[in-house]
Amino acid sequence: MKRTIAGVLAVMVVMLLTVPAQAGTRDDCIAKCKEAGDFIKSQGIDAAIKEINNKNGRFVWNDGVSYVFLMNMKAKMLAHPHKPELTKPDTLIEATDVDGKAFFKDFVKAAEKGKGWTKYMWPVPGMEMNKPKHTFIYRVPGTDYFVGAGFYVMSPGVFY
């Protein structure tokens, strides 16, 4: 019994040490998206693209795991701090995750409503693994742009 408790405690300590202190949360994602929307409105789209593409910028947090990306309503990726190659295609509307889900369609649907949450599989930056990701989509009022930010479900009860 003592070995079992010690083993469980050891696993919990390892989990706590591997999850950053500022793990992404729903509230963080919403706040960062609204901040990015305000930035777009006040500084313009060119400045926003530059800042959102900056992997060391204000829209990347949680040791680089959490970040904002920027798209238009045609599902064209305009800025992504970790995957700049996503900005090359004219649209990502038919692109899928590793499970075959065309989740960019969900992004556009959420943006058409003004905001919303989506779920799909996505690579965790710096970890070479796909995990479930919950992403908040926020349409910048009065524009054809939307931003998104999400958090990963690493295991039941552990979010990143």
Structure characterization notes:
With 160 residues, the chain is an alpha+beta fold. The chain has a single domain, classed as PAS domain (Beta-Lactamase, 2-Layer Sandwich). The protein has 4 helices and 7 strands. Strands 1, 2, 3, 4, 5, 6 and 7 form a 7-stranded antiparallel beta sheet that branches. A hairpin with a 4-residue loop joins strand 2 (66-72) and strand 3. Helix 2 (26-43) packs across helix 3. The longest helix has 18 residues, at 26-43. The radius of gyration is 17 Å and the shape is globular. The model is unreliable at 6-23 (pLDDT under 50).
Describe the SSE topology.
Elements lengths: L1 H17 L7 H18 L1 H9 L6 E2 L4 E7 L4 E3 L23 H11 L1 E9 L6 E10 L5 E11 L2 E2 L1
Antiparallel strand pairs: 1-2, 2-3, 2-6, 4-5, 5-6, 6-7
Helix pairs in contact: 2-3
Number of strands: 7
Basic shape: globular
How large, in whole angstroms, is the Cα Rg?
A: 17 Å
The largest sheet is:
7 strands, antiparallel
Quick tags:
alpha+beta, globular, 7 strands, 160 residues, 28% strand, 4 helices
Quick take:
With 160 residues, the protein is an alpha+beta fold. The protein has helices at residues 2-18, 26-43, 45-53, 103-113; strands spanning 60-61, 66-72, 77-79, 115-123, 130-139, 145-155, 158-159. Strands 1, 2, 3, 4, 5, 6 and 7 form a seven-stranded antiparallel beta sheet that branches.
